[in-house]
Amino acid sequence: MTNPNLDDYLQQGMYGTKETKPEERRQFLGTIRERIVLALRQSQVREPDVYKEAEEAIKGNKGAKLYLNGHLDYSYLSKYLKIANQQNMEYTIVTNNDYNSDIGLLIAYDHAVDKEDIYVTENSAEKKADEPTEKKGFFAKLFKR
Predict the structure, then answer these.
(1) How many other C-beta atoms can be found within 10 angstroms of the C-beta atom of residue 69?
(2) Tens-place pLDDT, residues 52-71
(3) Rounded to an integer, what distance in angstroms lies between the CA atom of residue 101 and that of residue 70?
(4) What is the pLDDT of residues 84-141, one digit of tens each?
(5) Looking at domain 19-124, does it have CATH number 1.10.760.10?
(6) Which residues in 86-125 are b (16+ Cβ under 10 Å) and which e?
(7) What is the DSSP code string of the chain?
(8) Burial bucket for residue 48 (CB in 10 Å: 0-12, 13-18, 19+)
């Protein structure tokens, strides 16, 4: 590694310290993709029920940290904060005034875990609600078979 020179000090003073993968850090609430265990989108965090996958990830990943999007209302975040507090998991609420990420919640380590599929696709409660229910007419109710 080379010794920093005067120009490096000036650049750091004017623009701040150099950051690896700045676009990725904006998208993933200050961390990078390779460290993430689980991610929920803002729309998923806004749902009334806690995602079972998120609860299991909080309980099963000791040493990880919970990152929450500060652009979301606290009422949506509180159910996840309660679980994190019960499990003694550190958490950070990240608010970036220049960029509002679609990510609502992340569980990540401070080192790489390289998990391939980090996104939760659908809630089991949603799945049950989407299943078609058989509609019965008036006469079908009268003449039960």
Answers:
(1) 23
(2) 999 999 999 999 999 999 99
(3) 10
(4) 999 999 999 999 888 999 999 999 999 999 888 999 987 544 444 444 445 556 555 5
(5) no
(6) eeebebeebeeeeeebebbbbbbbeeeeeeeebebeebee
(7) -PPP-HHHHHHHHHH-S--SSHHHHHHTTTS-GGGEEEEEEHHHHTSSSPPHHHHHHHHH-TT-EEEEETTS-HHHHHHHHHHHHHTT-EEEEE--TT---SEEEEEE-SS----S--B----HHHHHHHS------HHHHHS--
(8) exposed
| CA-to-CA separations, 107 to 68, 76, 119, 132, 141, in angstroms, rounded | 9, 16, 11, 34, 49
**Which two tokens mark 93?**
């609420």
Instruction: For tokens 């309660």, name the residue.
Output: 82
